[in-house]
Amino acid sequence: MKTILNVIWLVLCGFWMCLGYLLACALLCVTIIGIPFGVAAFRIGFYALWPFGYRAVDRRDAGAPSCVGNVLWLVLAGWWLALGHVLTGIALCVTIIGIPLGLANFKLIPLSLMPLGKEIVPSDEPFAAR
């Protein structure tokens, strides 16, 4: 089932959201200071490309630098990407078939706003949330 949802997601919005994250990655990696943000954009871009079957969990070793980095990310790229998720989520919720995809898009908004300190793991991996 998750493969079918991923293929439909890829066709309707996953490819375009991944391109948005890769554009943010390219822009953020221009400077040395922006490289950690670019890596986060790259990681979440591929999660936005194929989201079903994976989930984001908090990293235990993330501390204050992740918090400060998330504030910078929010200003630099986070709200643009979150706006993309809101718009595509609303567009997907117009049809009955798109409602689960729109809801999945809305679930990506917190991750697009604050990606540092998160890790993408398979959802069927035992003890992934720990």
Question: What keyword list fits this structure?
Answer:
5 helices; 130 residues; mainly alpha; two-stranded antiparallel ribbon; 65% helix
List the helices and strands and how they pair.
Elements: H1 2-28, H2 35-49, E1 54-58, H3 64-92, H4 99-107, H5 109-113, E2 118-122
Antiparallel strand pairs: 1-2
Helix pairs in contact: 1-2, 1-3, 3-4
What does this structure look like?
The protein has 5 helices and 2 strands. With 130 residues, it is mainly alpha-helical. Helices cover 65% and strands 8% of the residues. It is globular and about 40 Å long. A two-stranded antiparallel ribbon has the order 1-2. The model has no long low-confidence stretch (mean pLDDT 88). α1 runs antiparallel to α2, α1 crosses α3 and α3 (64-92) runs antiparallel to α4 (99-107).
Summarize the structure.
The chain has helices at 2-28, 35-49, 64-92, 99-107, 109-113; strands spanning 54-58, 118-122. By secondary structure, the protein is mainly alpha-helical. The chain has a two-stranded antiparallel ribbon.
